[in-house]
Amino acid sequence: xxxxxxxxxxxxxxxxxxxxxxxxxxxxxxxxxxxxxxxxxxxxxxxxxxxxxxxxxxxxxxxxxxxxxxxxxxxxxxxxxxxxxxxxxxxxxxxxxxxxxxxxxxxxxxxxxxxxxxxxxxxxxxxxxxxxxxxxxxxxxxxxxxxxxxxxxxxxxxxxxxxxxxxxxxxxxxxxxxxxxxxxxxxxxxxxxxxxxxxxxxxxxxxxxxxxxxxxxxxxxxxxxxxxxxxxxxxxxxxxxxxxxxxxxxxxxxxxxxxxxxxxxxxxxxxxxxxxxxxxxxxxxxxxxxxxxxxxxxxxxxxxxxxxxxxxxxxxxxxxxxxxxx
Amino acid sequence: xxxxxxxxxxxxxxxxxxxxxxxxxxxxxxxxxxxxxxxxxxxxxxxxxxxxxxxxxxxxxxxxxxxxxxxxxxxxxxxxxxxxxxxxxxxxxxxxxxxxxxxxxxxxxxxxxxxxxxxxxxxxxxxxxxxxxxxxxxxxxxxxxxxxxxxxxxxxxxxxxxxxxxxxxxxxxxxxxxxxxxxxxxxxxxxxxxxxxxxxxxxxxxxxxxxxxxxxxxxxxxxxxxxxxxxxxxxxxxxxxxxxxxxxxxxxxxxxxxxxxxxxxxxxxxxxxxxxxxxxxxxxxxxxx
Amino acid sequence: xxxxxxxxxxxxxxxxxxxxxxxxxxxxxxxxxxxxxxxxxxxxxxxxxxxxxxxxxxxxxxxxxxxxxxxxxxxxxxxxxxxxxxxxxxxxxxxxxxxxxxxxxxxxxxxxxxxxxxxxxxxxxxxxxxxxxxxxxxxxxxxxxxxxxxxxxxxxxxxxxxxxxxxxxxxxxxxxxxxxxxxxxxxxxxxxxxxxxxxxxxxxxxxxxxxxxxxxxxxxxxxxxxxxxxxxxxxxxxxxxxxxxxxxxxxxxxxxxxxxxxxxxxxxxxxxxxxxxxxxxxxxxxxxxxxxxxxxxxxxxxxxxxxxxxxxxxxxxx
Lengths: 326, 289, 318
What we know:
Chain A is α/β, with parallel strands linked by helices. Chain A has helices spanning 44-51, 74-80, 91-94, 101-112, 117-130, 147-160, 177-194, 205-209, 229-235, 239-247, 289-293, 312-317, 319-322; strands spanning 2-11, 17-27, 33-37, 59-63, 84-87, 165-169, 197-202, 214-219, 222-228, 299-302, 305-307.
């Protein structure tokens, strides 16, 4: 799965355009977990929605196994897209309030028209058991379930169509912390069992760093750093990544933890009118003239580690800067 | 797991009953309308006279034989009232049915598809709303040909833009729900999304609107029949009875009361039911219980 | 005059054009609703083939649809609404003769609706949930459920036949005898006004209650402003916009309701003209009269839109 120079723009009235995703190219390998991190408004959800064809790229192409799904005919696209599922942040809004849990979970199978009604019922019930939601919930309505139970139902529903990739769009952010771990463990088990590929979208680096193979950091619609997960935590090269890591309250091994929190100053700029040059410069402690004049490109500074920062090299060489000791 | 029982089929009946017990107005309105339906079905059993049989006993005052007297052709007014009830019910149903049949798909399509389709349909809706309703209904009846069904189709055409406007807004709200995105992501065709997700979730405010429109249709039927564009003689309708009664107002003023009161009560019952439904379906008022 | 405002007003006027185009299309399209052959239907049961052919030619029904519409619109814009099939007289003259009594009772009714509906709405809102409020609310729900023309009959039987205060039927030309016209129009206007009073009182009440219960007004009250001052300075200014919208709606309804009211009071107005044209299938008259009434409603909506901008400076920036 990959995206090639994908941009997604939305008209926001009176001829103005919001560029939610700007020229993003990523590649997700089969079977891996790809973490995508960013603040709200960074366009991370939009790219996730574009990957499962809920948004159409304004420019660039989405490639599913080398094929552009938008080049397919409507009926082919409907069949094809079943392999690419999404789990949303708000499980409550993702289930039709007027359908029983069983009906919601069975619905993808009804659409696909696979097997007899009894077969479909059975498969839905099997999956309910598999995700840890007993069959007793089958005839209940969403408002009778807790958030975690609803999210399990959504996961079961996504699995019915045997997808190869699942986008988890802040899939645990709305849940209680105690339940978050359960759901994350469930997702990890399911990945083993079904050979799934995950795109894990989150604002919370702690959620993804243990389960991801690759992590990309997004800021105002652009990828600013991308690296193997084990490398990023220690060898991050972008000031924004540093700020994200330092804001993370979850205990890191002391060697990785910055001594001081770096609090980002100022608001996230409007994506309708992003800053010139490097988009992060308005909140960056290291910004210089070149940052305003020229947009930094993603440069490969170590194997598999790419960063879009003019000062990445100096940043790497000066450990004091990294420790945030100033 | 707590389970609220008001969703299962048996529970639905029970919840309607408990609602009616709590809401006297709803119970009264529903009771009245039910009685009207029964009267319509059992008209020959209730009225001892034929509604169209003439006699020499003209404009007679109420008596034991003729409970509400007789009209200018010696026909029993009570019988005509009873036989007028199904006309009124039928008229309201036709008008609202036509309004829904035209308005629902149009408004839903506009709301779901958005873009240029929405712009064009919204403009058409705005234009039709600028027509004074009854006048448009009269003009359309003139074109379709005079008669109750045509007149009510005309009224339905007048209702359609109102329904379309309402359902369009609801559709826009529902189509942005995540469960619609989920349905799209597993390849549900547009038709399925509209039928399985959008219709059931967007229809609720329409139910309230429908009861209010039934009242509007009833009043429109009365007006059009009064003007001679609706029910054609010799068959009775309340509006048409008023037209005849009005001609003989100076001799037999009591002729105008029964049909007028019947129309008023029926319209009140529809409106009252709508008002009660609105309070019941409103989530903010429901949570207080 | 403010340049921005002028440009805005111009823009609003331009926006009316598509509505107007669509309205004329709908009115023209009426004849397409006639089942079967319109010419044969119009000619009636006993028409000969030549009669039908003549009607087809006269109405231009033998020409392509767009050409028919173009001709009809072009003539209408030049003030030629064709001739009545029944009398052969120009439709525009007939409409011009019939319109004044209709507009007179409609405007008269609108004035009564505002003069009674507004105070009732304010009273009910300031005394929310009192006996008076409940009374106004129930009268208002009665007002929207009562068949208007029936109320007219009852008015006639009480005030015209019973007390003899008003003439039962007919109308006087305003230009010749203004007070006579008012006297004749009083009962029909009162009949029409009942629905308007109910609508205005209801809507004004709920919008005022919303304003008066807002955080903002509660703050003012906490600051010690007198309730009367709050009502006049803040409540009514905010409710004025609702009122304006309701007035537009009420005018539209009132104009429509004249159809039945004119029949009750035997007023030779545009409403009864439309009814007769519908019964007689006199399509040029039907289309012409509806066209003129729709023009009036659209102009009224435009005026209300403009008043909106004067009352609410926020709208201008949009």
